[in-house]
Write a structure and sequence with these properties.
Shape of chain A: elongated
Structural class of chain A: mainly beta
Number of domains of chain A: 2
CATH architecture of the largest domain in chain A: Beta Barrel
CATH superfamily of the largest domain in chain A: monomeric porin ompg
Strand content of chain B: under 5%
Oligomer: heterodimer
Helix content of chain A: under 10%
Number of helices of chain A: 1
Number of helices of chain B: 10
Order of helices and strands of chain B: HHHHHHHHHH
CATH topology of the largest domain in chain A: Porin
Strand order of the largest sheet of chain A: 1-2-3-4-5-6-7-8-9-10-11-12-13-14
Shape of chain B: globular
Order of helices and strands of chain A: HEEEEEEEEEEEEEEEEEEEEEEEE
Largest sheet of chain A: 14 strands, antiparallel, barrel
Helix content of chain B: 55-70%
Largest interface: A-B, 110 and 84 residues
CATH class of the largest domain in chain A: Mainly Beta
Low-confidence stretches of chain A: 1-28, 268-294
Mean pLDDT of chain B: 76
C-alpha cells in the first residue's frame, strides 16, 4: 500500500538524486535505525475515541550536510481496522562555497503515502527550499514548498511559504515558525513554536501553535509534548500526547492522542566527550555577549613556522590565553584593529589544550576550536598544530 | 699516592647512584606553583612515568592547568594520574615506537571514547605520524559525532590522506555540524545527550515520538 503507485517514481527519483549528491563523501556517513512500539488512545476529530497499537520503524542515512530518512507507521485500531503511513525524505545543505557565510541553502524532497482500511489513501510529493541565515547558536530561515498531493482523485497543487527562527542555549533549543499553506482550495496559516531540552537521560519536546485564516483546514490552538527517557544504550521509553491539526499535504486528520511506548535502537553512539557545553561562567563564548562572534579563536601558521593565535573579542578590555604551550601561565594578547587580539608563538607539532580569559573573568574555551571537558569542572579548548 | 682501580670504580658507582637519586628527587621547578604535598605526589607520578618510558611533559602541563584553574590538590593529582594511565594505554595500543606527541593525542582519543583497537588499526594503516588523525578523531567526537562513525572515517582517510587534508576534512565536518548537519542531530536524538539542531535541517526532523 505504501507508497501509492503514483508516488513510486517520485520516491525513486528522490533516492537517486540524493545518493548522487552524497556519494562523494560517504566516508563520514552513518546509518541509524530505531523502532517505536507504542499503545495509544486517539480521537480523530469527528470520530469516536479508539485505542490503537502502533509499530513505527525509522531508518536514516546521514552524513554532514545531508540526510535521507524513511519512516513508517502501522496502526491497528481496536476496531480491527488498520492504517499505514510512510514517508521518505531527503535533505541536502548547499556546499559551503555556493553561498557566502553565514548564508546556507537547503533542499528537501519528501514523498509519502498513507492509507486507512481499504478505502482512504493519500500520497504526496513535495520539494522545499530553505535559505538559512546562521549565527552562533541561532538562526533564521525562509522557505518555500511546492508539490502535489492526492486524496483518491486528481492531484492537487501544494504551495507553502514559511519563515522561522531558532536559538540554542546549552541543552535548550527553542524555535518558532509561521507558514501559509495552499493545498488545492484549502488554505491556512500556522503559527508554531517549539522547544527541545535535554537533561541527562531525559529529553523533552513540546510545541504549541495556532491555526488561523483557514479555509477548509480547521482552526484553533494545537500543541503536543513528549518525554523520552533513555534507559540504556539501545532502549528508551517515551510518553507523548496532545492535539495536532489537519495536515492537508500528508493527509493527516486532526485529532488528540496519548501514547506510551518503547524505542529500540539499532545503532547507539558511545558517550561523547562533550555534549553541548554547560556554561560554567558568564562569558561571550557562552552566548552572554551581545556579539555572537565574540571570543572566537583562529589559529594561523606564519611563514616562519610560528603560530598566530587570534581571538576575536571586540568588547574586551583585556584578553589572556593560557595553555600547554605557555606552561599555563596567562599570556596577555596584543590588541589589533577590528577588535582582534593576538599572540604569535613558536609551538611544535602536537595537540595542545588552552583556555582564554576576558577582562579577568573565568577561563573558557572559545568558539572556533574543539572543546572538551577538562578535569577541573570546566571546559578546555583543543588546538592541533600539524 | 695512587688508589686501587677498585676504589675508583666504587667512587664512580657511588657518584652515579647519588646523582641518579638526586635526579629522581628533583621535581620540575615549574611545579613550584603547586602546594608542597601536591607537588610531591605529582613529582612521584612524573618519576613513575619516566620509569615507564612515558612522556612527562603532558603530566606536568596537566598539573599546571589545574593550578591555573585553582583546582584542589586532590583534583590535580587525580587528573595527572588519569592522564598517566591514558598515556600507558595509548602506548600499549600504538606500540613502543610511538612518539610523545602521538601518545598524547592517543590518550586524548581514548579519553574521548575511541577503542584501543582503533589506535592499533590506525597505526597499522598509516605510516606517517598519527598526531593529526588522532586529534581529528578527538575533535569530531567532541563535536558530537558518534565515536564509531568518527573512527571509521578517520581510519578510512588516514591511509591515503595528508595531515592538511585531514584537518580540512575535520573543519568541513565541524562546520556542517555547527550548521545543524545530521551526525550531531542523530547523536543527540539517539543518545538523548544534546540537541544540536531542531529546525536547521528540515530533513533531520521526526526524531521525537510519532503521532498515531
Amino acid at each position: 500500500m505504501w507508497p501509492a503507485p503514483a508516488a513510486r517514481p517520485v520516491c525513486a527519483a528522490c533516492v537517486t538524486a540524493a545518493f548522487s549528491l552524497l556519494a562523494t563523501r560517504a566516508a563520514v556517513a552513518q546509518a541509524t535505525g530505531n523502532v517505536d512500539v507504542a499503545v495509544s488512545t486517539v480521537r480523530y476529530d469527528g470520530f469516536l475515541p479508539s485505542g490503537a497499537a502502533s509499530l513505527t520503524p525509522a531508518v536514516s542515512w546521514e552524513r554532514p550536510g545531508a540526510t535521507i530518512t524513511a519512516r513508517g507507521t502501522y496502526l491497528r485500531f481496536e476496531s480491527g481496522r488498520r492504517s499505514l503511513h510512510g514517508i521518505l525524505a531527503a535533505s541536502v545543505l548547499t556546499p559551503r562555497p555556493l553561498l557566502p557565510a553565514p548564508w546556507r541553502g537547503e533542499l528537501t524532497v519528501s514523498s509519502g503515502g498513507s492509507s486507512y482500511a481499504s478505502f482512504a489513501s493519500f500520497w504526496h510529493a513535495t520539494g522545499e527550499i530553505r535559505l538559512h541565515y546562521l549565527a552562533e547558536g541561532r538562526g533564521v530561515w525562509v522557505g518555500g514548498t511546492g508539490g502535489r498531493t492526492s486524496y483518491g482523485r486528481s492531484p492537487r497543487p501544494v504551495a507553502v511559504a514559511a519563515l522561522g527562527a531558532w536559538s540554542r542555549r546549552a541543552t535548550l533549543t527553542v524555535g518558532a515558525s509561521a507558514s501559509r499553506s495552499f493545498v488545492g482550495d484549502t488554505a491556512y496559516t500556522d503559527l508554531t513554536s517549539r522547544m527541545h531540552i535535554v537533561r541527562g537521560t531525559v529529553a523533552v519536546d513540546a510545541s504549541v501553535g495556532d491555526r488561523m485564516s483557514s479555509r477548509g483546514g480547521g482552526h484553533g490552538v494545537f500543541g503536543d509534548g513528549s518525554v523520552t527517557l533513555t534507559l540504556g544504550e539501545r532502549t528508551a521509553i517515551f510518553l507523548s500526547g496532545g492535539r495536532y491539526p489537519t495536515d492537508a499535504i500528508s493527509g493527516t486528520v486532526s485529532g488528540r492522542y496519548l501514547s506510551a511506548g518503547i524505542r529500540l535502537r539499532t545503532v547507539t553512539p558511545r558517550p561523547v566527550l562533550r555534549a553541548v557545553p554547560t556554561p560554567t561562567q558568564r562569558s561571550p563564548a557562552n552566548g552572554d555577549g551581545d556579539d555572537p562572534a565574540a571570543a572566537r579563536l583562529d589559529a594561523q601558521r606564519t611563514p616562519d613556522g610560528s603560530v598566530r593565535l587570534v581571538v576575536v573579542a571586540p568588547a574586551a578590555a583585556t584578553v589572556e590565553l593560557a595553555g600547554d604551550f605557555t606552561d599555563w601561565q596567562p599570556v596577555q594578547l596584543r590588541r589589533n584593529a577590528a577588535g582582534t587580539w593576538e599572540t604569535v608563538r613558536k609551538i611544535p607539532s602536537g595537540v595542545y589544550r588552552f583556555n582564554v580569559r576576558i577582562d579577568g573573568s573565568g577561563w573558557f574555551a572559545p568558539a572556533g576550536t574543539a572543546r572538551a571537558t577538562d578535569d577541573f569542572g570546566g571546559e578546555v579548548g583543543i588546538i592541533t598544530v600539524p | 699516592m695512587r688508589g686501587s682501580p677498585w676504589s675508583g670504580a666504587a667512587c664512580l658507582l657511588a657518584a652515579t647512584l647519588v646523582t641518579g637519586t638526586m635526579a629522581a628527587q628533583q621535581i620540575d621547578p615549574r611545579l613550584d606553583r603547586l602546594d608542597a604535598v601536591t607537588r610531591s605526589i605529582v613529582g612521584a607520578l612524573v618519576d613513575s612515568a619516566v620509569a615507564a618510558a612515558l612522556p612527562t611533559e603532558p603530566l606536568i602541563q596537566r598539573a599546571l592547568e589545574g593550578a591555573t584553574k585553582r583546582a584542589t590538590g586532590e583534583v590535580i593529582v587525580a587528573a595527572v594520574r588519569r592522564l598517566a594511565q591514558d598515556l600507558a594505554h595509548a602506548r600499549d595500543a600504538l606500540g613502543g615506537t610511538a612518539s610523545p606527541g602521538e601518545l598524547t593525542a592517543g590518550a586524548a582519543a581514548l579519553r574521548a571514547g575511541a577503542s584501543p583497537a582503533f589506535l592499533t588499526e590506525l597505526r597499522r594503516t598509516r605510516r606517517e605520524p598519527l598526531i593529526v588523525p588522532l586529534a581529528v578523531l578527538t575533535d569530531l567526537v567532541a563535536s558530537g559525532v558518534p565515536v564509531d562513525s568518527a573512527a571509521h572515517a578517520v581510519v578510512a582517510l588516514a591511509s591515503r590522506t595528508r595531515d592538511a587534508d585531514l584537518i580540512e576534512f575535520r573543519r568541513a565536518v565541524e562546520r556542517d555540524i555547527a550548521l545543524g548537519a545530521p551526525p550531531a542531530a542523530a547523536t543527540a536524538a539517539a543518545a538523548g545527550l544534546t540537541a544540536q539542531s531542531v529546525d536547521v535541517n528540515a530533513g533531520a526532523r521526526q526524531q521525537r515520538p510519532g503521532r498515531p
